[in-house]
Structures are given as structure tokens and as C-alpha cells.
Specification:
mainly alpha; homodimer; Ferritin
């Protein structure tokens, strides 16, 4: 079983992830070409805030002060977002689906390594619901209209993945509790490699869903 | 009884008001000096989005397409927000309490002039909950720390009110259905004047609550 510190770190990292996802989705919603698109991305933002709230409440139950617990993860998340600031509506859509989707897969894998109650909460706040459908509709319509868009968005997705991996490594190097959770939870480094393989597979599926797999 | 068009216009204006309030609160939350303040203002934004959703759902029940119904009100709301963009955290806090509070009072008055079901929905989505407490805490602490802040924020509040009135006039001049609802609902222009008097009184109370009435 992971240490209580590891569980708090995990929930806090995820909580700050949700709070910053709220912030970024709300920001990116402004680039929507239609009021309907704007409402749809704003709705995703509001849902993320609800998830943040549940995670923050859980941190309180575990005796942690949410803002203190989240503090160690602010820099990595903000760096990720500032290095992957979408400059177009479609980049925002791809980020919301591919970037957030990959983060969700990572947390879902880690959820299997902790106690059931924590694991259930994590799986619960990571439901992506209609996000795929939304992204597919927006991206496929754009590609149909202008095929060159596909190549640019594929490169963009690669950048998202690169920055996400880089910041995750920073966090793990910095938080021993999380690194231990990952290594001990999966058994050993082979287990970690298998976990990363599964995440990569699901990322590839997402890219295919969007029509961006080249 | 007001015309169906007036009810749809009213709900649509309010719905776009909520959607843009979501957007602006999420934006202003970034200026928070603490993570706790940011989470608190983000929470207000998420609540506004929930209200937007309920109003949009109601528009659908009434046979209207929400984005079409909201379209006539986009310009006035966006103008209001662009002319009252907070440049500091405290300006954002005052706007969220004083500006949004005044708009809420206006809608609450109008809610008395429509059918019960519409009126109940409007009153329901306008609960300000903890916003007063939050604003009082932030503003009073700032004034205690630096008394000159009070004068600047009082001027800011006056600007918010001026722009809100100006944009409301534009909307009413543009939407005959809403103007009729207001004049016929209150009886006559004396009734409108009394309504505006009540809104002004409540605004004055808010300014006193914040310690900005000196």
C-alpha cells in the first residue's frame, strides 16, 4: 500500500491539474468560432472545476490543506500550459482531447496502484464523457475543409506529448513519494515501461480517432 | 402576461449574461494573489456556468435555440465587459459583487413581472450565496492595509454602474418586447422609476457593506 503522503501528493497533483484545466479551457473557449462551440468548451471547464472541488474536499478529509498540498505541483503544470498555449481554436480542441486525455490515462493507471476509495474517486473525476465526440467533430470538419490542417495539428499533438512527458518527469524527480508509488506499485521498472506502453497505445488510438495519425 | 417573445428574450439575455460572467470570472480569477482566492473565484465562475446551462435548457423547452436567442444580447454584454475590464484583483472582486449584484437585482425585479415558472427559475439562478462574504473579506482587508484603496474602488464601482446602465438602455431600446415587459409589468413609467429606485437602494447597501460608501 502506498504511503499516506503519496496519496495526498497524487490527489493534490490531480486537483491542481483540474484547477488549471478549468482555467485553460475557460481561456481557450474564447477562441471558439461559434457561440455553441464556446458554450461547449466552457461546459468542459465547469466540469473540471467540479472535479477539482471533489478532490479538494477529499484532501480535507485526509487532513491536508488543499492549497498547501497543491503548491508543489503548480510550477510544473503552469510550465506545461505556458509551453503549450494554443494559438487557434483547433489547437485548443486537440489539447483538450489529446493532452488532457493522456494525463487522464496516466492518472487512471496510477489509480490502480492505490486504495480502492482513492482509486474510485480518481477514475470518477476522469470521465471524459463527450469530449471525444466534440473533438472529432471539430477537427474532422476542419480537415475536410482544409487538408493541410492535419499535418499542423499532428505536429501540435506531438509537442503536447513531449511537454507533458517532460513535466511529468520533473514532478516525479521532485516527489519521491510519487516515484516510489509508481515503481513499487507496478512492481519494477519493467512494470513502469509496460504502463507507459499502454498510455502510448491509447494516445495512438486518439490520434487515429481524430484523423491525425498520418 | 408578457408575450412569449419577451420571456425568451429575458431568459436569453440572462443566459448570455451568465455565460459571459463565467468567462470573465474565470479570467479575473487569474489575478488572485493566493491559490485559495483563485479557487474561490473559479468556483463562482463554475456556478455561473451551471446557471447558464439551466437557462439554455429552459430556452430549448420553450422552443428556442439558445445560441440564436442569445445573439441579440452578445454585443451589449461584451461592450460592458470590455469597458469594465478589471486591472487588479480587487477591481475584479468589486465587479463580481457590485456589478453582478446590480444586474441580479434588475433581473430579480423583472422576475416579478413574468409567469411563476419563469420567475422561479430566474430567482433560482440569481442566488449570490457567499459572494458578499468573499468580497467583504477581500476588500476590507485591502482597505485596512492601504486606506487609499477605498477611494479608487468607489470610483471603479461608479464606473461599473454607469456602464451597466448605459448597456441596459441600449438593450431596451433595441428589444421592444423587453421594454414593453418592463413598462407594462410595472404599470407605467412611475413604476419603472420605483423599480430603478429599489435597485439603487440595494446598490448603496452593497457599497456600505464593502466600506466604500464614504
Amino acid at each position: 500500500m502506498p504511503s499516506p503522503e503519496a496519496v495526498i501528493d497524487l490527489l493534490a497533483a490531480l486537483a491542481y491539474g483540474e484547477l488549471s484545466a478549468f482555467d485553460r479551457l475557460a481561456d481557450d473557449a474564447r477562441m471558439a468560432p461559434t457561440l455553441a462551440g464556446r458554450a461547449e468548451m466552457s461546459s468542459m471547464a465547469a466540469i473540471e472545476f467540479g472535479h477539482y472541488q471533489r478532490l479538494a474536499d477529499r484532501l480535507v478529509v485526509l487532513g491536508a490543506e488543499p492549497t498547501e498540498a497543491m503548491a508543489p505541483f503548480v510550477a510544473a503544470l503552469e510550465t506545461y500550459h505556458s509551453l503549450t498555449e494554443p494559438s487557434t481554436w483547433l489547437e485548443g480542441v486537440v489539447k483538450a482531447y489529446v493532452g488532457d486525455g493522456m494525463a487522464a490515462d496516466f492518472y487512471r493507471e496510477v489509480a490502480a496502484l492505490v486504495d480502492d476509495e482513492t482509486g474510485d474517486l480518481i477514475r470518477d473525476v476522469l470521465t471524459e464523457a463527450d469530449r471525444a465526440e466534440f473533438a472529432v467533430r471539430e477537427v474532422r470538419a476542419a480537415i475536410a475543409d482544409q487538408p493541410a490542417v492535419a499535418g499542423r495539428l499532428a505536429l501540435w499533438a506531438r509537442r503536447l506529448v513531449g511537454e507533458a512527458i517532460s513535466q511529468t518527469q520533473h514532478v516525479l524527480a521532485d516527489r519521491e513519494s510519487l516515484m516510489l508509488l509508481l515503481v513499487e506499485g507496478t512492481g519494477d521498472l519493467t512494470g513502469v515501461a509496460a504502463l507507459l506502453g499502454r498510455i502510448t497505445d491509447r494516445h495512438t488510438e486518439r490520434m487515429e480517432t481524430l484523423g491525425l495519425s498520418g
